[in-house]
């Protein structure tokens, strides 16, 4: 069998195939991480939507099922400052929907919270010693980063520009995820807030490869062997795939989200800030159409989601997808409903056949 022409990521992480599971906070599961790891890729567990206790419980399940390498993923955003005026403007923008559903626009809502990587989460890393730790929205402060490295983990993070890639390399990342504009979910951007300047995977990957010395992992719009072969030809040492795993039985998505992925064309996704306050790509739905892709009223990440929660709670059980984020990359129509492990193995075999 043809061997992989670039083994840098395989040797760095101790995996068989240059295929990384995107963490996908809220949709990934321990079972999905286990399946990908056992099949020879790098499994991932997103901790951004979990408490430290939940993260430990999930890791206990993973470690009981596989000894293969695992990636723990964390957010590194700056906690938002209180902005009552902006919050009031956001509630006012959403008030017509509250009234439509018979809800009180002034009702109390639970604040949305996403805890960035901190000392408590670092203790989880030190206790479980994952082979890889990845970050989104930059990197944690130097003391925490040094502790992660001391625990034996390889560190990776997402870059959406060459400047971000150079920054991550200078700060000690062992590899860099080049996240093209096609990618689903939250943009990893952290040195810029200008979404209009975000470029696609085919343009970003070779420029990042030329800009840094560490291995580059291509992400965004890659869902089958053709995308992997293209990424490798552009100089990437591996790929990170998210949306193509969402139809796997091991993933956790709602029926509405599944239907959206199965029917959406590439031009039916868009980058928006209306769900969380931070740019993220998903299938266009009513909220995005009526409020616009971007709203200046949306509070800073992750606070925008708080006032949306009652609207989701009221409509989602009825089968509506009007107020829920349908995170998706631009290649959702290439995804297939199949076990994650089967996908990894068949993908690797097809790629090797093509490059052989």
Report the count of strand segments.
11
Largest sheet: 8 strands, parallel
Shape: globular
Order of helices and strands: HEHEHEHHEHEHEEHEHEHEEHHH
C-alpha-based Rg, rounded: 20 Å
Percent strand:
5-15%
The helicity comes to 25-40%
Furnish the topology, listing elements before pairings.
Layout: H1 8-13, E1 19-21, H2 30-39, E2 43-46, H3 52-65, E3 70-75, H4 84-100, H5 119-128, E4 132-136, H6 142-150, E5 154-159, H7 162-170, E6 175-179, E7 185-186, H8 201-211, E8 216-219, H9 225-233, E9 238-241, H10 255-263, E10 269-272, E11 280-283, H11 286-291, H12 304-315, H13 340-355
Parallel strand pairs: 1-9, 2-3, 3-4, 4-5, 5-6, 6-8, 8-9
Antiparallel strand pairs: 7-11, 10-11
Helix pairs in contact: 2-3, 2-13, 3-5, 4-12, 5-6, 9-13
Describe the structure.
The chain is an alpha/beta fold. It is 39% helix and 13% strand. The protein has 13 helices and eleven strands. The strands form two sheets. Strands 1-9-8-6-5-4-3-2 form an eight-stranded parallel sheet. It has a three-stranded antiparallel sheet with strand order 7-11-10, with no helix packed on it. A hairpin with a 7-residue loop joins strand 10 and strand 11. 49% of the residues are buried.
């Amino acid at each position: 069998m043809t061997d992989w022409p670039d083994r840098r990521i395989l040797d760095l992480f101790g995996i068989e195939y240059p295929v990384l599971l995107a963490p996908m906070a809220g949709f990934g599961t321990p079972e999905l991480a286990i399946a990908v790891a056992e099949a020879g890729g790098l499994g991932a567990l997103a901790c951004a939507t979990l408490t430290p206790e939940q993260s430990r419980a999930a890791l206990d399940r993973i470690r009981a099922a596989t000894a293969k390498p695992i990636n723990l993923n964390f957010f590194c955003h700056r906690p938002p400052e209180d902005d009552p005026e902006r919050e009031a403007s956001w509630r006012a923008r959403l008030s017509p929907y509250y009234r439509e559903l018979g809800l009180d626009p002034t009702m109390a809502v639970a604040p949305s919270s996403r805890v960035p990587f901190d000392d408590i989460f670092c203790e989880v890393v030190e206790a479980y010693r994952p082979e890889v730790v990845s970050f989104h929205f930059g990197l944690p402060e130097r003391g925490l980063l040094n502790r992660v490295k001391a625990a034996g983990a390889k560190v990776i993070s997402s870059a959406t520009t060459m400047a971000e890639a150079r920054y991550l390399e200078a700060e000690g990342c062992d590899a860099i995820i080049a996240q093209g504009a096609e990618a689903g979910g939250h943009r990893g951007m952290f040195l810029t807030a200008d979404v209009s300047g975000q470029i696609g995977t085919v343009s970003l990957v070779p420029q990042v490869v030329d800009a840094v010395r560490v291995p580059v992992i291509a992400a965004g719009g890659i869902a089958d062997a053709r995308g992997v072969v293209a990424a490798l030809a552009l100089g990437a040492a591996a790929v990170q795939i998210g949306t193509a795993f969402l139809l796997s039985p091991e993933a956790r998505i709602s029926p509405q989200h599944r239907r959206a992925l199965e029917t959406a064309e590439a031009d039916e996704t868009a980058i928006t800030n209306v769900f969380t306050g931070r740019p993220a790509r998903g299938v266009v739905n009513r909220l995005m159409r009526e409020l616009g892709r971007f709203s200046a009223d949306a509070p800073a990440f992750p606070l925008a989601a708080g006032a949306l929660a009652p609207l989701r709670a009221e409509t989602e059980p009825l089968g509506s997808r009007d107020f829920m984020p349908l995170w998706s990359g631009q290649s959702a129509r290439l995804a297939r409903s199949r076990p994650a492990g089967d996908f990894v193995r068949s993908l690797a075999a097809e790629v090797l056949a093509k490059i052989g």
